Amino acid sequence: MSRMRAPWSEEEDARLRDLVQTYGQKWQKISTIIKMREAKQCRERWSNHLRPDIDKSPLKEYEKHKIRILQRKFGCKWTEIAAQIPGRTGLMVKNYWYNEEKRAKHQMRNKMAISRLLLSPNEIEEQ
Predict the structure, then answer these.
(1) Domain ranges for the chain
(2) HSE-up of residue 84 (Cα within 13 Å, Cβ side)
(3) Can you give the pLDDT at residue 34?
């Protein structure tokens, strides 16, 4: 049987919540009932999006600071880092980290481009 790769619908989310309440985190059992989703898909959907204790608000400054400190200690072990920050998932922490890296690289490229403009031979000759 082919399993879905499409985004989860609200109905599927509601069904998954009900099944977790009934069966706990028995992902194989749950996937046999849902049928169109693998056990891994059910586990990841629950763990990263549906758990009631997930804090979906933007990261607070102290959480960002803690991620930076813990990343130096644990490297890219996002689940271990998230375990130290209540309400946050490994996926949230990983996404924050890589978005920050991307933003920092973009800022560095912009600064380098501005520096090149400021030091351009054309501007020096015009003075």
Answers:
(1) 10-50, 61-126
(2) 17
(3) 92
Fold classified for 61-126:
Arc Repressor Mutant, subunit A (1.10.10)
Identical fold for domains 10-50 and 61-126, yes or no, is: yes
What is the mean pLDDT of each successive set of 10 residues along the chain, which is 127 residues long? Answer: 82 98 98 94 97 97 97 97 98 97 79 68 55
Per CATH, domain 10-50 is 1.10.10.60: yes
Question: At 106, which amino acid appears?
Answer: H
What residue has token string 């890589």? 98
First to last CA, the chain: 73
